[in-house]
Amino acid sequence: MPIIRSTLDADLQYLTQKIAQEVDKELMSPAGGFVVEQLMELAGLSVAQSVAKEYPLTKYGQVLVCCGPGNNGGDGLVAARHLWHFGYKPSIYYPKHSKKELFQNLVTQCNNLHIPFVDILAVKSGDYSLIVDAIFGFSFSGAVREPFGEIMKILAESKVPIAAVDIPSGWDVEQGDVHHTDIRPEMLISLTAPKLAAKHFRGKFHYLGGRFVSSDFAHKFGLELPAYPGTDQCVRLP
């Protein structure tokens, strides 16, 4: 199974879209033993912890979490909940709710914490110090469709730092920003393993999250992942 190595860091590997999908499928197979709820919870927690490591609460307390309708958006909903427990004041922009029970439960969990769900007008007028981009993940392909056009423009023009979950929204999973979204996140939090588009990331902070890969599983897919320090759910990459 082909794994593409970086020429900059021989120990860091990048996954194609197809391999990333196969890895996800295998994790949730009988051999992997996980369910999507577990993976989403661990991914969202690692996103929140990565953010907390580089963006201190005292300066970046007001966080806008932008969520799409798929699993990347679910990671964002989980991250918002954990950020609230960490002391941040997140708001959530989630214009296209999923009807799946999993996502409805995540929304209920955020509502129970009184985390506000905001519309695009509130996003435009809000005073946020950090944006978490959890709109589109590694399954994204094609052109951006409504109702996400306006928020994509806001992300492209943002003067506050953006932390992208797994893939900057609208980027090609392998080739980077070939669709010219002009979204340039300051932080990228890759999940499970970095995707090929991460080679085009030029921001300050690249983290890896999703501490759920066993050594046997990593060996099967040829993954050479860095060690996570202590009890951390994320690790900063070179």
UniProtKB/TrEMBL annotation:
Binding positions ((6S)-NADPHX): N71, N72, G73, G74, D75, G137, F138, S139, F140, S141, G142, A143, D166
Enzyme class of the recorded protein, top EC level: isomerase
Cofactor (UniProt): K(+)
Domain of life (superkingdom): Eukaryota
Listed GO CC annotations: mitochondrion
EC numbers: 5.1.99.6
Pfam families documented for this protein: YjeF_N
Gene Ontology molecular-function annotations: metal ion binding; NAD(P)HX epimerase activity; nucleotide binding
Free-text remark on how the cofactor is bound: Binds 1 potassium ion per subunit.
Reactions that this protein is recorded to catalyse: (6R)-NADHX = (6S)-NADHX; (6R)-NADPHX = (6S)-NADPHX
Limits of the YjeF N-terminal domain: 20-225
Gene3D superfamilies referenced in this protein's UniProt entry, alphabetically: YjeF N-terminal domain
Annotated positions binding K(+): N72, D133, S169
Localization, UniProt: Cytoplasm; Mitochondrion
Protein purpose: Catalyzes the epimerization of the S- and R-forms of NAD(P)HX, a damaged form of NAD(P)H that is a result of enzymatic or heat-dependent hydration. This is a prerequisite for the S-specific NAD(P)H-hydrate dehydratase to allow the repair of both epimers of NAD(P)HX.
Identification of the protein by name: NAD(P)H-hydrate epimerase
The species this protein was found in: Tieghemiomyces parasiticus
